[in-house]
Amino acid sequence: MDALAVTDAQGAFRLGVAEKEVALHVQVEARNLARRKFPSLRAGPTEHKLQLGLGVTVMGKVVKDGKPLPGVVIGLAHQNRMAEKFLGDQKIRTDDLGQFLFRNVPANEGYVVYGLMESCRLHGAIKAQAMHLGADGTRKDLGVLTMEAALRLAGRLVLSDDRPLPTGIRMSLSREGPWDSQVAQVAADGSFAFTGLPAEGYSLRTKVPSYHLSSKNTSYDLTGLSLVGRVDKDITALRVLLEPGVPQRPDFSRFTSTDFQKMERRRNHALEGAPATETK
After folding, report:
1. b/e for 125-156, b at 16 or more Cβ within 10 A?
2. Residue 67 sits in which domain range?
3. Is 231 left (phi over 0), alpha (psi -120 to 50) or beta?
4. Which of 86, 154, 179, 199 has its CA 20 to 30 A from that of 236?
5. Same domain, yes or no, for 120 and 187?
6. Angle CA(228)–CA(231)–CA(234) in degrees, nearest 5?
7. What would the pLDDT profile of 97-139 be if each residue is shown by its tens digit?
8. The whole model's pTM is what?
9. 262 and 155, same structural domain?
10. Residue 120 in contact with residue 72, Cβ under 8 Å?
């Protein structure tokens, strides 16, 4: 199957596929127009008309202590993470006046705007801001995004059988909503730390061969893959417990509304690990 095609002077293109009636998910990008995904286009003799729009112009300004802050990277990510809809993220750096501007953002969709942690770390942190854009050709002025004091998350990774950790273990911390994450190296004693965090919800993951996250961690996600919860103040002693064995993937078809409500409560609660006195 052809992975890429370029339109001719009339805007026509052709993607070759091995079989008839194959359904394709096609993403179209053009200069000075908003990119767009077209799901389930059936291969065959039918000519598909793919319409692009101008999109929306999104603008704003970053300040710290009332003064414009240049050189900070601002991200903009599509909120719909369904494969057939997700358009990824965009990044742009603030200018000398602290201003930023995204052009040709796809219209009539939900997005989140945020300061990238790595870029903001020396100055503080910028919280994520959700928004819904209007029609093609409109403008969205976000006003001022304020650089605030950043938070710190630190703790220790522990194996329930008290064996020493292998070398080279890392932990990843992802923001809930923004397309932004950090990776921290785990020390020999299991200690780790993340800095430059805005007050938001996060997902914490790690991978140690032959071990899995314990459900004794208070913020254990029912997917079994991460700990989920909010960081609204410095957390200095998060104890992340792992147990021997392969994690069992949950059967979501058997989840009840109570299970999903429990997952949502954990996401909105402070991030917590396992107590130091848990029963083995």
Report:
1. bbbbbeeebeebeeebebeebbbbebbebebb
2. 56-146
3. beta
4. 179
5. no
6. 135
7. 999 999 999 999 999 999 999 999 999 999 999 999 999 999 9
8. 0.88
9. yes
10. yes
Of all residues in the chain, what percent are helix, strand and coil, respectively (each to 5)?
A: 5, 40, 50
The residue type at 184? A
10: left (phi over 0), alpha (psi -120 to 50) or beta: alpha
**Does residue 172 carry a pLDDT above 60?**
yes
- Please say if the pLDDT value at position 1 is more than 90: no
Confidence of residue 280 (pLDDT cuts 50, 70, 90): very low
Q: Is the pLDDT of residue 176 over 70?
A: yes
CA distance linking residue 271 with residue 245, whole number of Å? 24
Secondary structure of residue 262 in the 3-state scheme: helix
Which strands make up the sheet holding 227-231, listed edge to edge? 181-185, 170-175, 200-206, 227-231
Residue 273 within a domain = no
What total number of domains does the chain contain?
Answer: 2
At 40, which helix (H) or strand (E)? strand 36-42
Angstrom distance (rounded) from CA 168 to CA 157: 13
Structure tokens at 221: 């996600």
Q: Are residues 228 and 131 in the same domain?
A: no
Task: Using CB atoms within 10 Å of the CB of residue 219, give its burial: 0 to 12 exposed, 13 to 18 middle, 19+ buried.
Answer: buried
pLDDT range class, residue 278, cuts 50, 70, 90: low
Distance (Å) of CA 120 to CA 7, 83, 86, 150: 40, 29, 25, 9
Q: What is the pLDDT of residue 193?
A: 98
